User: Fold these one by one.
Assistant:
Number 1:
Amino acid sequence: MIPRYTRPKMAAHWSDENRYATWLKVELAVVQAQAELGIVPKEAAADIVRRARFDVQRIEAVEEEVKHDVIAFTTSVADSIGELSRYFHYGLTSSDVVDTALALLTRDALDLILEEVDNFRAILKRQAFAYKGQVMVGRTHGIHAEPTTLGLKFALWYAEMGRNRKRLRAARESIAVGKLSGAVGTFAHLPPALEELVCRRLGLKPDPISTQVIQRDRHAEVMAALALAGTTLEKIATEIRHLQKTELREVEEPFSKGQKGSSAMPHKRNPVGCENVTGLARLLRSYLVPAYENVVLWHERDISHSSAERVILPDATTLLDYMLNRLGGILDGLLVYPEAMRASLNKTRGLIFSQQALLALTRSGLSRERAYAVVQEQAMRCWSGEGDFLDLLLAQPEVFERISPQELRKACDPGGYLTHVDEIFDRVFE
């Protein structure tokens, strides 16, 4: 059975409750750092940390009136700390809190995704070794080419997901910066030392330079890494969809007992999970446009990026998390049909051995140009249904005078194409 997406972590991570909790985490780190630097009394800071609370319904009610979410948030917290609220949000602008908190939220969302990436790669590795020697026909342009193995496909995907992992890690590093530099980035009201203390407390690095906001190329980098990882998942899903076509049916998505494929046709077993991943990858890539356009803001900041980010960052991370989980379940329970793979290998009656025949003829002393002409002529006759490729080839004087039937058929053993599979695996899984 294909496991459904049951992990609530990402949804809870981007909830209003957690967003405000992260804002409060930043605010309290600021208060503690201010106390350390003597900007606010230590006793007051300790009391604020002990008493500070917020109420989501109260925030929503205040925001309805003031039309400003951070003011609504600070008002709710002020309810819990009373007169100490004069030290709360002291010297800060809204983006000091919001952008630093968004860095924390995005960093931690990427940690959840990286956990899923590792789980996904473990599935790919296990299947790569399980099907390392499962011979199947390779295809280029959708046409039969030469033998490969199913394990090599999984190994290829494993390596590509490793590169996605590196990109996601790099994006995590890029986004994990905070800023407390004030309304235009000049530290007019609080010193850079405060920013350094707060960021250290939060596990972030200070942004070396900012305006009122952290620059959005960092967020665009995150979105690019997410979108590219999603595209790799679509690539894998598309391959499964192709190989599940009725005329091939070399592999198939798991189909659980009681599952239905069509409301009209009871026989249907459709690759709906892979199609689901394909569609979501398209949606995920669409978020690249607003992420890139958010980089361009007026002067020291405008707010045009904010509304888009409230959608694309939670959505994109949640989508990729879901896609990894969904496709991982499909690949883990993939149905594999070796008999169909053998049938596909033989479907073109030996045409897939054309390069081996070409090389054998050139080794025998025939020029490459003449050898190519001889092999192609017999290959076209095979395509036309005039006989098996090797039989047609061996009937030609230029062939049987140079190569024995035993020699040519041995050269065209599918196993000979896979001599270096172990070496490839060593490269991938070192």
Number 2:
Amino acid sequence: MGIGVSPDGTHIAFTPAMFSDVGFREIWVMGSQGDNPQKVLAVGENDWLEQVHWSPDGQRLAYLRVQRTAERYERSIETCDLKGASPTVVVSEMDVKVSDFWWLPNERIVYSRRESSASNDDNLWQIGVDGHSGTPTDRPKRITQWAGSTLGGVSATADGKRLALKRTDQYQVYLGELAEGGTRMNSPRRLTNDEASDFPSAWTADSKAVLFFSDRDGTGGIFKQRIDQDTAEPVSTPTQEVGGAVYSPDGAWILYLENQKQSHSRLMRVPVNGGVPQLVLETRNDARYECAPAPASLCVLSEESRDQKQLTLTAFDPVKGRGKLLRSIEKDPTASFAWGNGISPDGTTFALARSGEPEIHIRLLSLSNGSDREITVKGWPNLNGRSWARNGKGLYCGSYSAQSRTLLYVDLNGNARVLWRLKGFGGILGIPSPDGRYLAILGGDVINTNVWMVEGF
């Protein structure tokens, strides 16, 4: 797959493999007619690449590298020559997202940088770079002061005096009414309607309201909206950035993850009617947590080991904290798992599936000393979300391609039925209500793209 043409048009940088859900791991260069292909760079199993651009003189390549360490992710803009030698680090960031960049002809690199991990506040930054050696010549400087924007597709005019693309991207919550035992769905309607990003995570026990995470307050918080209303109400105003929230099985608590911006996070609980948040347990930043619905009482914490080679499933109590180890599973350190609800409604099985594979495979892991099994969903690639149907007879799965994303109902034999299909690339996930009548859907993102010509920087 081609990823960049040299400034003089004589060479092409490319990767021999298709992009996965986390990027690619090799950079090659060949002549413009496909001649003399040569590998330039390959990264290890815990690293991947997301962007590649040529230097203005065509003698070096700059690339965006993501390194997964034992504690967190590090994103850096680096360069090397066309033999992969003389590597340099131009910019390196922890806990914030460097997502796109462009190498200007006047010895500067301009890049987009997210100001916090829980907001859509991207801004343009620049740094001086020696065009011959690829080494930075000064410190990064901010160019823009924008809020609520996602910047992508950064490019510049030939003289490097004008750039870039400004893009605002918001995910919204949609509501679909299910039929035929949850295997079909009527055309969904939009539930949230704002200029923020909203991510559904749970339902109230009476199936009348959806709990969701939103960055509408600037840093991120937990909100609740009834399905017969147009506005949402805040549930909790944490002092730190937070992840999605779920209810405890007895409905007494709302659980959410509070990001400490280091190697760990705190799983917190707050009473459903409001009150002071309390600590449940401490865990890693990439941990996931969920609870089976009543009458089941199981809550499960999913944690990866520091070397990313093992996944553990641990029971926990919303009040007492950690419980017994349920399962320990060996894993590929390069693999990532789909989001959603993995615990079956009766609490006996955990559904685990890798995201980004060319065909969906869902492992059903027994939590009650039973047998494991695997479901193959033929013809559907790139799982990016899964949740159990309330009757336990199937799962709602999101599948994406370069052209569209599709919400599926998948029975336990792997047979898939299309519920909703959307054009465009992105995430899609359906969460069923306790009474099995509705799906709260992450999808239908609103994208407003405008070209902004920035000059005088």
Number 3:
Amino acid sequence: MASAFVNQQGMLTMIDILHHGATTGVTGSCHELALNSGAQKNGILIDCGLFQGQDEGRGASASDLSIDFPIGHIRALIVTHVHIDHVGRIPYLLAAGFEGPIICSEPSAIMLPEILEDALKIGFTRDRRLIERVLGLIRSRLVPVPYGQWHSVFDEGDSSLTVRLQRAGHILGSAYVECDARVGNAEERIVFSGDLGAPHAPLLPAPESPERADRLVIESTYGDKDHEDRETRRYRLKAVLEHALEDGGTVLVPAFSIGRTQELLYEIEGLIHEFGGDLWSNLEIVVDSPLAAEFTRIYRDLKPYWDAEATERVHKGRHPLSFEQLTVVNSHEDHLNAVNYLARSHRPCVVLAGSGMCAGGRVVNYLKSMLGDKRNDVLFVGYQAVGTPGRDILTYGPRGGWVELDGERYDIRARVHQVGGYSAHAGQSDLLRFVQGIPQAPKEIRVVHGDRSAKEALKTKLEGLLAQPQILIPE
């Protein structure tokens, strides 16, 4: 993994890529770009994320989040976006002695302390003073960089590194990272995709391919399949909501706080606006996640980063993320009251509650109360990692199976749906377009951040499209 790379001129360089996560699955993203100049070594990390489910790194896992690789030479951390599987281990990185800057986009700089505060409370400590100290340290290290602007990380002796962030279209603030690395006379541009968004997703502009990439590290979450187009998934969302309207059930959406929640609210507002009438006016939308509510507020505040369609809605006087039928539940007491009320009542409702893979959070209480009632629906709109309750519900629910939640078995009688088009990830065709859009094909492509079958499928497709590529699946 740490061998030198032979560039186009046949020169042996000492610019290495190492992977510390997202090689056994889709979580724990953490990659290293190392520049070796004689006895001197400098490097950067791209993301430092949490492992979930059965994913693991070299020695770290969901149960052991310690930093299991040397960091003394790491000069900076580049954050592609603030999803927990990309930033969740930052507190552990700081605890291990990392003292460099945290470089990210301007929206990510606003959101990162918010997401890490929640992560600290859940998995690190309940000590408020310690949390504030860690958050203060993180804020002091943040270096917001505008999209499209080169930023120098270091330039010392015969080695230098500059980075540039470009819109990735995944969630607000998401970026792919272009790295211009130099050691002696050897120069390379290496691109890390982070998580790429799907074209025509609500709210955010689609990503554009980089102008150059000598080497590319690309995600493959959906490397083996394409998503439904927007009209198809919108129709399917409408059909699920109409089922709730007909029988007074609850549509439970295990939602990721950032990205999916805001996109769904945007689409639901559009459906209510289009169809209206007494039937749709009875549908209540509940966001039961303080974190999701906070990020929805941040999304509203950062309208300059929205796409043209969303901006036009605002100009017409509509409020896609703050409409009349939307209710936000904050306190734990109100959450429990909402669970009990919806389990008993026959009022049609859509509940978006965290966490997205049902591995904790408020969605678990809803699942315990509602999975056994056929009036209800569970709608998955994001990837469900192996080993998570979400994956089990998706797998066994349609067959009338059961799922274990907090050590107890719960029968699944609610209908289970998956609308993959609302995933914030690019599908296979989108990933291939991203690569094909690079004017000169990369000499090396590393496929990460996917289940084995997805990585293999994307690798096979790329080999069929590109002339003599070196395509690797890091272990």
